[in-house]
Amino acid sequence: MTGPRRDPDMVRPYVRTGGKIRARDDVRLESVLIAASGPTDSLGPDPRRVMRLFTGTVGGLAVADIAAALELPPSTVRILVSSLMDSGHLTSPVAASDHQPESDLLQEVLRGLRSLV
Amino acid sequence: MDCAPWSDPPVTYVPATVTRSAKIVVAGGFGVGKTTLIGSVSEVKPLRMEEPITQASAGVDDLRGTPHKTTTTVAMDFGRIHMAGGSLALYLFGLPGQARFQPLWEDLAEGALGCLVLADTRDLDASHDALGLLDSGGIPYAVAINTFPDAPGYPEAELREALALDPYTPLTTCDARDRTSSLHALITLTEYLTEHRSAAVLETPR
Ligand SMILES: Nc1nc2c(ncn2[C@@H]2O[C@H](COP(=O)(O)OP(=O)(O)O)[C@@H](O)[C@H]2O)c(=O)[nH]1
Ligand SMILES: [Mg+2]
């Protein structure tokens, strides 16, 4: 059924995600993905639509960008992307080991915002 | 900007220089200026996502014992600013502030640096749900009063009391239609986050 934190009155549609029902914790709306040179085996229709967005570009897309482009709910895209990371089709442009401490990120954001005014 | 092939709508790719991303949430009631603020600061055309949520009507059963359900679609706009020499993408998400969207918030606001709450003095009560969601989610926030022409002005102390703000929560004003004004509101939030976030994170159980 649903996880312990889920409100039983609220059920989100997970029908299009091929059975995977939880997103990875590190796959959030703002998480940027790039194509990995992974397997080119057969994928379902929605994972294929996701992967098609990455064809012919070195650029990345965040989970939210994918949800908007494909008109899919972001909760569904988080799960699709989690599966595609697990299967080696997508990867994040940062290695998990060189995550910056949060204070550095905030300082960068503050500097960045100030530079725009 | 390059476009995706085939029939899917065009997308603006994140430049290959971006290695990190962060998220700030913009919250508030309907019509308070979330879409406007995101549009005025975003460097790419703001986009929209839609999340359908199915909500059981409480206490109503049909003959099979299945609760009646209503489906609401929650629309969320977002934009993006590139910074730190193109290595960092800051995403801004507009999230509706109704309390019944709490499960959605848990999923979507998770990991946010913080939240800018927009408030309108013509309907301060509309902000309470958003403030409650943030308090219970442990997400730090600043409040910006959006200056609508026919909105009544109040002394700061009265506004703080009406919104039940902690004394250290930043309270500012902005015109969401104006890029510089919107950026200043975001700077006020981020200054507060850099000063207070580290301590708050240590106190928040994960
Ligand atoms: N005067 C004034 N009007 C605003 C401001 N922000 C938004 N508006 C207007 O208020 C209306 C609703 O804004 P919108 O951004 O769609 O609100 P949302 O529902 O929170 O996304 C629009 O017609 C905006 O042009 C503001 O700061 N000042
Ligand atoms: Mg809006």
What's the architecture of chain A, going by CATH? Orthogonal Bundle
Note the total helix count of chain A. 4
CATH architecture of chain B: 3-Layer(aba) Sandwich
Shape of chain A: elongated
Number of domains of chain B: 1
β content of chain A, as a range?
Answer: 5-15%
Oligomer: heterodimer
CATH fold description of chain A: Arc Repressor Mutant, subunit A
Average residue pLDDT of chain B: 87
Strand segment count of chain A: 4
Task: Give me the strand/helix succession of chain B.
Answer: EHEEEHEHEHEH
What is the average per-residue confidence, as pLDDT of chain A, rounded to a whole number? 81
The largest contact between protein chains, plus residue counts on each side, is:
A-B, 56 and 63 residues
Can you describe what's shown?
- Chain B: This is ATP/GTP-binding protein.
- Chain B: Keywords: GTP-binding, Hydrolase, Nucleotide-binding.
- Chain B: Belongs to the GPN-loop GTPase family.
- Chain B: It comes from Streptomyces viridiviolaceus.
- Chain A is mostly helical.
- Chain A has helices at 45-53, 63-70, 74-86, 102-114, and strands at 10-11, 32-35, 61-62, 90-91.
- Chain A has a single domain (8-96), classed as Arc Repressor Mutant, subunit A, CATH 1.10.10.
- Helices cover 37% and strands 9% of the residues of chain A.
- A three-stranded antiparallel beta sheet of chain A has the order 3-2-4.
- Chain A is elongated, with a radius of gyration of 16 Å.
- The model of chain A is unreliable at 1-16 (pLDDT under 50).
- By secondary structure, chain B is an alpha/beta fold.
- Helices cover 28% and strands 32% of the residues of chain B.
- Chain B has a single domain (20-49, 79-203), classed as Rossmann fold (3-Layer(aba) Sandwich).
- Chain B contains five helices and seven strands.
- In chain B, strands 2-3-4-1-5-6-7 form a seven-stranded mixed beta sheet, sandwiched between helices.
- At the A-B interface, strand 1, helix 1, strand 3, helix 2 and helix 3 of A face strand 1, strand 2, strand 3, strand 4 and helix 2 of B.
- Bound molecules: guanosine-5'-diphosphate and magnesium ion.
- Magnesium ion binds at residues 34-35, 77, 94 of chain B.
- Residues 28, 30-36, 94, 146-149, 175-177 of chain B line the site of guanosine-5'-diphosphate.
